[in-house]
Amino acid sequence: MRNLSMLTNPYNDDKDFDGCSIFGMMNVEGKRFSSRDPIKAIANMHERGNGLGGGIAVYGIYPQFENYYAFHIMYLSRDAKEKTDRTLATSFNIIYDEEMQTRPAKVIDPPMVWRYFVQPRKRRLGKMTADDYVTEKVMQINTETGKAFVFSSGKNMGVFKGVGYPEDVADFFCLEDYWGYLWTVHGRFPTNTPGWWGGAHPFNILDWTVVHNGELSSYGINRRFLEMHGYKCTMQTDTEVLAYAVDLLMRRQKLPIEIVTKVLAAPLWSEIDNMEPKQQQAYRAIRQTYGSLLMNGPFSIIVAHHGEMIGLTDRIKLRPLVAGTKGDFLYMSSEESAIRLVSPTLDKFWALRGGEPVVGKLRNPHKTTSLEEN
Amino acid sequence: MLKEEKRFVEIDSKYVPRVKVKDRVWKIDAEGMYYKDLNSLLRDMCNKGAEKILIRNVCGQRYIGTDLNAEVEIDIHGTPGNDMGAFMSGPLITVHGNAQDGCGNTMNDGKIVVHGQAGDLTGHSMRGGQIFVRDDVGYRVGIHMKEYKRKIPDIVIGGAAGDFLAEYMAGGVVVVLGLTLGECERCKARFVGTGMHGGVIYERGDILEVGKGTKLMKVGKRDMQVIERLVKEYCERFSADYEIIMNAKFHKIVPVSKRPYSKLYSN
Amino acid sequence: MKTNLLPEFLVERDERRCIRCKVCVNQCTYETHSYDEEDDVICSKDENCVNCQRCVTFCPTHAITIRKNPNVNTENANWTVAAIRDLKKQAETGGVLLTGMGCDKPNLTYWDRLLLNASQVTNPSIDPLREPMEIRTYLGAKPDELEMEMENGSILLKTKLAPQLRLNTPILFSAMSYGAISLNVHEALARAATKCGTYFNTGEGGLDKRLYKYGDHAIVQVASGRFGVHPDYLNAGAAVEIKIGQGAKPGIGGHLPGEKVTPDVARTRMIPTGTDALSPAPQHDIYSIEDLRQLIYALKEATNYTKSISVKIAAVHNSAAIASGMVRAGADIIALDGVRGSTGAAPKIIRDNVGIPIELVIAQVDQRLRAEGIRNKASIIAAGGIRSSGDVIKAIALGADAVYIGTAALVAVGCTVCQRCYTGKCPWGIATNDPWIAKRVNSDIATERLVNLLRGWSLEIKDMMGGMGINAIESLRGNRLALRGVGLTDTELKILGVKMAGA
Known about the structure:
The structure holds three protein chains of three kinds.
Chain A (H helix, E strand, L loop, with lengths): L4 H4 L9 E10 L3 E4 L1 H8 L10 E6 L9 E7 L2 H14 E8 L12 E9 L1 H4 L4 H15 L3 E5 L4 E6 L3 H7 L6 E2 L1 E9 L12 E3 L2 E7 L4 H10 L9 H15 L4 H8 L4 H4 L4 H14 L8 E7 L2 E6 L8 E5 L2 E5 L2 H7 L5 E4 L6 E4 L7 E2 L4
Parallel strand pairs in A: 2-19
Antiparallel strand pairs in A: 1-10, 1-16, 2-9, 3-8, 3-10, 4-6, 4-7, 5-6, 11-12, 12-13, 13-14, 14-18, 15-16, 15-17
Helix pairs in contact in A: 2-12, 7-8
Chain B lengths: L18 E4 L2 E5 L5 H13 L4 E8 L13 E7 L9 E8 L12 E6 L15 E4 L20 E4 L12 E7 L21 E7 L9 E5 L2 H18 L3 H5 L3 E6 L9 E2 L1
Parallel strand pairs in B: 2-3, 3-4, 4-5, 5-6, 6-7, 7-8, 8-9, 9-10
Antiparallel strand pairs in B: 1-2, 10-12, 11-12
Chain C lengths: L8 E5 L9 H5 L5 E4 L4 E4 L9 H5 L5 E5 L12 H13 L2 E4 L14 E3 L20 E3 L8 E4 L2 E4 L7 E3 L3 E3 L9 H14 L3 E2 L16 E5 L8 H6 L2 E5 L10 E3 L6 H7 L7 E3 L9 H14 L5 E7 L4 H10 L4 E5 L8 E2 H6 L4 H14 L7 E5 L5 H10 L3 E4 L1 H7 L21 H4 L4 H25 L15 E3 L4 H7 L2 E2 L3
Parallel strand pairs in C: 11-21, 12-13, 13-14, 14-17, 17-18, 18-20, 20-21, 22-23
Antiparallel strand pairs in C: 1-4, 2-3, 5-19, 6-22, 7-10, 8-9, 15-16
Helix pairs in contact in C: 4-14, 8-10, 11-14
C-alpha cells in the first residue's frame, strides 16, 4: 500500500508547519446564503496567508442529494481516477458523478477534481455503520494510489480547497454558485508543503471540518494516541489530528462539545485544585485519561459539522479568535476587521477566552432554507 | 558607499482622488486600500505638514501610525488592523471603533485613544506615550512595559483585562477601571503581573487576582495624583462621569522585588 | 552549609620567582590572591580561581601556574568530575546552573570532518597575492530576474533591488549586547567592522548614543525584551535583525542580572538602573509564522522599506521548514545559530543539550530553499562555533552567504573562554560593566586586534579559494563539490550533501 507521504510531506519533516487566517459564518435559522460575505471576509485577511493554501467548507449545498455522501476527489493522474472509480463502484452505489465546475483562476497547478454522490452498498456494509464504512473507504482511497485524494466526504456539504489565496480558490471552484447556511474559510501560510492541494484546509472527514491556525507542540503524541485508536494520519498536519480527535471524542465516544473542549484545552492544575471536590475528580480524570489529546501549543480552530459551528483557542490563548453576532448570524474570525467588513454593525462582539468555546447551533436542526427563497 | 539605493513605496496615482483637504483636515477614504499604500499616503501627508488626518472606512489595514515621527492627529473610523501604532513616536491616534491585536506595540511616544475594545498585546513592550481604551482589552496587555527616568508610559483600561496583564512589567502605569464588570464581578484575568519587576498597576475596587511576585498595597497621596490625572483624561476623552468612577476604592499592585529571579541560579 | 566542593583549580606560585609585585592581587577580580604584609607573602584562595589566565599572563616573572585539581573522584565514564561537581553545587544551592560561552562538549563539530579541494593540473590554482581574488559579498533579497534594456550602448536597469548590505569580507561580528559585554568592547567591534567594511550586531541591549556614528556598520537587533528599541535606533542601523533564538539557548529567554544594569546600560536599554533586564522566551507578538510576517513588515514600515530585515533562529530539528517560512514571511536575511554558539549566560543544561550543529542546518536550509526555488529571496548567515577561516570557507561552500563570529572575536580582544561571563567579573574586561574592570580593554588596541583577525582570515580565505582555482566567492557559495567528508556515516554525508573523501 502506498500512501500520500511523498505529497503531504515531501521532505520527511516531523510534520507540516503553517500559520493562517480563519473565518466562520453561520445562520442559526438555517437560511442559506452565498459565498460573497465569507470570501470577502477572508480576502481581507490576505496578509495572514502567503498564497500557498486556501479553502472553504460549506454546509447545506446539496439539498437535492442530501441523503447521499458527497465525495470531492482530486486526481493527479488519469490512472488514479480509473483505479479509484473501480474502488468506488465496488464499494458504493454511485448515484451521480461529474467533473466539478472550475474556471481558470490564480491558483497553482490545479489537479483534476471530481464530484460523486454515493451510497454504501448494503451487502458490503455488514455490521459497520455507514459512517464508519465511509471513513474506512476514504482512508483506503487516500492511501491506495498516492495520486487520488478525497478532500470532502460528508452529506449535503462540501469542502473546496487548493493552492492559492482562498479568494482565488473560491474563484477556481466557481463558489458564487453555491449556497449554504454555514461557511468556514481558511487562508494558509505553509512552510514545508507549499504545492500540495490536499494540504490546504479545511480538513474533512464525513461532515466534520476543521480550520485551524497555529502549531501544536504536542503533535507527536496526539498523533500516536489517535493511531492507537485506528486513525491513519496520512496528512501529517496538526489539523488532521484535531479533526480526528474531535471525531473520536464527539462521534465515537459521544462526549458533548463542552467536555471535548476541556480535553483539547484542559484547565490548569492550579485551577482544578481550586474546584469543589466532585469537579476536581472529574477534571482530574479528564486530564489523566485524555492527557495525550491535550492540544499543547498555540491554536485557534473552528470546527463545524451539520448544525453546529464551534470556535476554540488553546488554554493560554496564543492564537487570536473573535466572535460576533448580528441577527441570526454568528461570525468567528482571526481578526475583527474581517467581520466588520461584512457586517459593520454587530449586536454583540467579543474576543474568546483561552480554552472557552463558542458554540453556534441551529435553532431547528432539521430545517434549512435559502435566503433567496424567502 | 555601503548602502544601496533607498527604496520607498511609491503612492499609486489611483489613490490620489481618495485624498481631500478641507479646513486643514486631510481626509482619506481607505476602503479596500492596501496598508502599504495607506501608510505611504500618511507619510506623504506628514511630510507636507498635515496636522490633522481623518481616515474613513478603515478595515484591517495594519501598522497605521508607524514611522510617522510627527505630532499629527489621526482619527480612524472603522476597525484598524494589527500593530496599529507599532514603534510609533509622536502621533495622537483616535479610533472610533475597536482596535485589533498589538496596538501600541513597542510604542515610543504619542497617544492612542480607543473608543471601544482593544485586542491582545495592547501596549506590548511600550516604552513611552499613553493608551486609553474605553472598554475591555484582550490577553497580555502591557506586558514588558518599561520606563526610564521621566519617560513613563500609561495604559488606562476602562473595562476588564485578560490573562497575563502586565506580565514581566518593568515600568510604567496600568490602570484597570473595570467599568464593564457587573457588581461584585471580578476580572477573569489570571497571572496578572507575573514576573513584574517594576511599574505599578492600579485597580478600581478589588477586581484583579494578583499573580506570583506581586503584592497588593494601599494607594497613597502620590498614587492618587496619578490616578486622578489619568481618570480625568479618561473621562474627558470618553465623556464618562469622573465622580462616579472616583467614588470607589483603588488599590495598587507592585512587584515584590526589582530582582525577581536573583535567587534562581547557582553560580 | 559547609561546601563539599573542592577547588576546581590549584594556584601554584614559584616563591623563588615571585617578587611580591602584587600584579596578580590587583588583576584577579575573583579575589583569589591576597598579600600578607606581615609575612611578605602572597597567598591564594584556590576555590576562587576560574582559570582565566589573567594573573598568569600578567605576572612579570612567570611565577604562577594554574593546575587542574588532581584530587578527583574515582574515574567514571558516566559520573564524571564535572557531573559530580554540578550535582554538589545544586545540592548546596537548589538553583539552575549557569554557564557562559559555547558548548564545550566534544563530538558536535563537523567542520573537522570536512575537507577542502585544491586544483591540480586540469585547472590552475591562482596566486591571490598578485591576481584578483574577490570576497565581497552582498546580503539581502535578490530578485528572480532583472528587467533591463539597452539604451545608447548602456544598460538601463528597471528592476529595483531590495536593500543590500555590502561586506568586504564574508564575516560579521555576532550579536553581543551592551550589558553582556562592556562599552569598550562594543565600540571596538563597531570600529573594527567600520574599518573592515563589514558589520557588527548590537545584540538586544540597544545601541549607546556614542556609537550611533558607526550605525552604517551596525545590524540593530530587536529581541523579545525590546530593550532600547525606538525609531532612532531602528533607523540608525544598516539592517534590523529580529532575534527569535540563540544557538546557546534555543527556546529560552534571558536575564541580565540587576547588578549589570549600570546607569549607562540602563540608559541604553531604557529601564531603571539595578533592575533585572528580562528577555522573555518568545517574542510575545510572534506565536506563529504569520505573526513573524506581521513583525517583519512592522519593521519594514517603521524604516520605510530602506533596511534589510534579518531573522535569527537557533538551529533546531525543523530549521529547514522554519527557514522556508521565514523567507516567505519576508525575511531578507536569515541567520542560523548552531548548538555550539556562545552566550554571556545560559543554563548549562540548555546550552549543552538543546539544538543541533550548524553544519547540518546550513546544508539543510540551503537545500530546502533551493528545492522550493526561493534561495535567492534571502541570504544566509551562519553562526555558532566558527573558529577559523577554514570553518568560514566550509560554511560558505555548504551554502551560507556569510558567517557571524562571536567567540573568535572576543578571543582576539583577550577572552580565554573560561566560561564565567555570567559573573560580570570578567578579568579581561570584556563581559563586565564594572568600570574599574571594563577599562582593561582599550578600545583602540581591541579594534586593532579585531582588524588584524579579519585581515588574517580574509587572506587565508583568499589563499584557499586561489588553491581551488576560484577567484570570486560567489563561485564557492553553495558549491559543495569543493568539500569532501571523512569519518562520516552515509546519513551524515547525505544531510550535508557532500561526498566521502576519495569518492
